[in-house]
Design a protein that fits this description.
This protein is of the alpha/beta class. It has helices at residues 40-43, 79-83, 88-93, 102-108, 126-129, 144-150, 231-234, 241-247, 251-267, 279-282; strands at residues 27-39, 52-63, 68-71, 96-98, 116-120, 139-143, 169-173, 187-188, 195-199, 208-214, 218-224, 272-275, 286-287.
């Protein structure tokens, strides 16, 4: 029997739901670049080996008048060369399918690249960074601890070789703000409460969660790899032990952040929680115009 994490109490009423003043025209758009072929048994403890899950690999484009942001980058144009830098066992275990890179999708959508102000990483793992070289010189916003982890040869989940020699335009996230929804610190990207990052270490040393509030107070939480599928939160279960032991830098820290997010979900029941690899969550976002993606049905809200 799968052991559930304890049910936390809802976020206390003494912790306010932060105010946000999202500008008109702000939007959140799915940019799916492909999938990894997995099963539910890989995704979360107690999942079935017969329940096939295609893990979303891609981005979320936050449109904001002060500058658009890509949250993660998905598969890039050099993914084949990048994968070849990884250990052989990893290559054998990783069955991926590339649809269309984020850069190619934005071009097809006739997107104005001058609007794009940066790539905001939930964490510095290969499947969240592959497409960064397709956006040369674009600022890459990352936590200090994950920038250091990216250059650590012992860190699981990093590309090797030439990828680490690319001179990325790193911009360190500074969490100068105080508590936010029970997290100890936060960074308000544009000062209007619409895009807020909080440190959520566990899966990697410097993982972050990105809270996005759209007009009409539609709230999202882009939780990165806190969990791989929504069941990790709705069932309160972690990744299976062997995978958790290999893939999570700090399992206890990740466990506490899962419970923190469950508490927030109880307090804000209409919060749309988006694990980075759950196609169902990204299907609730708007699509890019003039772009057809295989396997993921996106519909306008």
């Amino acid at each position: 029997m799968t052991k559930q994490l304890p049910m936390p109490s809802p976020l206390p009423e003494s912790i306010p739901i932060p105010k946000a003043d999202p500008p008109e025209g702000m939007d959140l758009v799915a940019v799916p670049t492909g999938v990894n072929h997995r099963t539910a048994a890989y995704a979360y403890a107690g999942g079935s080996i017969f329940d096939k899950r295609d893990f979303y690999i891609g981005s979320a484009l936050i449109k904001h008048p002060q500058g658009d942001l890509l949250v993660d980058s998905g598969f890039g144009r050099d993914i084949v060369k990048q994968i070849a830098t990884m250990p052989r066992l990893f290559q054998k275990m990783t069955k991926y399918e590339v649809w269309k890179t984020a850069a190619d999708q934005l071009e097809a959508a006739e997107y104005d690249f001058d609007r794009l102000s940066g790539i905001l990483l939930t964490h510095a793992h290969w499947d969240h960074m592959s497409g960064i070289p397709d956006f040369p010189d674009l600022p890459v916003l990352v936590s200090r601890r994950d920038r250091a982890a990216f250059h650590n040869p012992e860190m699981f989940g990093n590309f090797r070789g030439y990828f680490q020699e690319i001179p990325f335009n790193w911009r360190e996230l500074i969490f100068e703000g105080g508590p936010y929804l029970g997290f100890p610190r936060h960074h308000d990207v544009y000062g209007d409460g619409s895009i807020v990052c909080v440190p959520a270490p566990g899966h990697t040393p410097g993982s972050v969660i990105v809270f996005v509030t759209l007009p009409k107070q539609v709230r999202y939480a882009l939780v990165g790899d806190l969990v791989w599928q929504r069941e990790g939160l709705t069932r309160r279960v972690e990744r299976p032990f062997p995978i958790r032991r290999l893939g999570d830098f700090d399992a206890e820290g990740n466990r506490q952040n899962i419970l923190r997010m469950v508490s927030i979900m109880q307090r804000i029941p209409d919060l749309i929680v988006v694990p980075a690899h759950d196609q169902r969550a990204f299907a609730e976002m708007n699509p890019l115009p003039n772009v057809t993606t295989r396997g993921l049905t996106l519909s306008a809200q």
